[in-house]
Amino acid sequence: MSREVRMVPANWEHPRDTEGNYIPLLSDFKDCNELYNKQIEQWKNGFYFCFIENNWKLRGTDQTVTFEDYCGARPEEHDYMPDWAETDRTHYQMYETTTEGTPISPVIETAEGLAHWLADNNASSFGQMSATYDQWLAMINGCGWATSAVIIPGKGLISGVEATCI
Description:
166 residues; alpha+beta; 8 strands
């Protein structure tokens, strides 16, 4: 993923380190933790999830690899956005998610306001590319995220945000 709109409280201030840089935060601890628990249970039963084939597969005879070796450490809640109540998630903020996730916009009350801010400030939709108001709004009101970039025959490399309008 590359850009993701996140719903946040009106007074949300993304945490910063001692040098003032944003601390990257992943988006959803609860879902990641549930997936981890499901995968570890399947691992104990002799299976692993094959992302390429999008299904569970039998692990085979090599039982020396641990689940943590295969999948990594258990998710830790402090690496994720806070789990606010839905009623508190009243405002929009755009995040880059090529890394774990840092904001590229301020907290804004409406989808239209966020799309205007992103377009007016030439916010990065991918690298040095930006997007139009209509492209940002389509992504925000659509699935809420866009991949980094895509290659379109005849157009070449375009940002995922721009691609949402094709």
